Amino acid sequence: MYWRGLRPGSCTQAGPACRERGRDRRHRRTGPGHATGAVTAMTARRDPSLAEQAYDRLEEMLVTLALPPGESLREQVLAERLGMGRTPVREAVQKLASEGLLRIIPRKGLEVTPVDRGDLVRVLEVRRVLERLMVVKAAERATPDQRRALHAVASHLDANAGDLETFFRLDRRLNEVLARACRNAWLVQSLSPLHAHCRRLWYLHRGHLDLGAAAVSHEALARAVGDGDGAGAVRALNGIMSELEQLVSNLALPD
């Protein structure tokens, strides 16, 4: 998904020098209303563009298997299905193709990328390294509100360990809070497509998941980061990654 508000290079992700330049620019403004305008601009959340909306909806359809692996598609049909114009859908398709969820076949159309065990092994190989950095930095940098949000996710995971859709919703919420808490947009941008491939893996196994074990490991991760325990977060993450690796090994697919 697009991580709105976490664009690489933005001042919210930069160091003190960038923030200082921002203060200098605000001090140079004159005239009534400038201070209020600056605060409004900094706090207002940008509405998603049509391309971002198309991307979010198509990604959800791909990872939840509403568009199953191997299915042939056409851009015009997708645009009609989403009720959107072809331009934003084309932008979304190009991004999804760059992330490995779609294939663009010249003069033929599109194909939902088939699930391949070897590719998933490589996805998990990269995710393990990058997400370790994310959870450590999130444990260090999370705000009090973010720590409360993480503990709330942990409590809900504990209370809803057997409900599949609730688990998926809380997993996404956990990823969203960690993404903001780590305060590194480059890291978030790198992990986002890896999470999409892993969510598709969860859905492929949705009828055979050990939800109790998955909820326990995700709850442990949320609590550890919320407590500022980087080492505990890494241990919990290792458990989650081991569960995903087991799911990959259980796939009856060619390498």
Automatic annotation (TrEMBL):
Keywords for the protein's UniProt record, in alphabetical order: DNA-binding, Transcription, Transcription regulation
GO molecular function ontology, one term from the record: DNA-binding transcription factor activity
HTH gntR-type domain sequence ranges: 48-115
Pfam families reported for this sequence: FCD (PF07729), GntR (PF00392)
Membrane-traversing stretches: none
Keyword hit for Transcription: yes
The protein's name: GntR family transcriptional regulator
Lineage: Bacteria, Pseudomonadati, Pseudomonadota, Gammaproteobacteria, Chromatiales
